[in-house]
Design brief:
Low-confidence stretches: 1-9, 219-230
Structural class: mainly alpha
Strand content: under 5%
Helix content: over 70%
Mean pLDDT: 84
Distance between the termini: 42 Å
Oligomer: single chain
Radius of gyration: 19 Å
Number of strands: 0
Length: 230
Amino acid sequence: MAAGRPSGVDSTAVRLLDAAERLFGEHGYDGVGMRMLAQAARVNLGAATYHFGSKKALYVETFLRRFRSVSREQGQLLDAAQQAAGRGALDLEQIVEALIRPGFLAGLEHPAFNRLLARTLVAPPPFLRTLLRRELEPNAQRFVQALQRALPALPLSVLQLRMALVSGALMMVAMRVASLPKVRDAARERATLQELVRFAGSGLASAAATSGAELVFLDSANAPHPARRA
């Protein structure tokens, strides 16, 4: 088995990924070693090395495991909304829900990933930046284009900043909901998602407060995450 490419049905690899998701979220990349990961997953160190090769490869696979499925579902929801709209304009809240729903539900299903995501977005390991851009940029660009069509008066740099703010709001809400009692409440989750979509859509659609010229660093492929410029 190639390093960083675990079998989807291999229970040892899954246990390692689950342990890594929890421990990296709690302690960060530098605070966790392969021996700690192997002990948490109840496997020997040799098995951890066999499946992933290195801590770096395990971290990358842990991070992308959820992101890939979320990105895939986001694209599917956007495609379905566009098909339903036909040649008509796509409603802003349809775009926002396609963007938010998969990550919101994934966070409820896997609360440890929310902690990993929050820690990583604030202080990502350097090796993760290029990989994330390559993995996520195509899907992100689809949503940027859809939002530009829905909000043609909004400068691109303002739109990009607001998308980052929407992601931050989603993260805070998902972590808050995930901290509630473990029994899932479908009505509460549905209402929370509806309010989040309405809030995000309203914020995206509001008139720009600036020309956007001061925000052009967000257009750069090499720009740091907005949180690191605060």
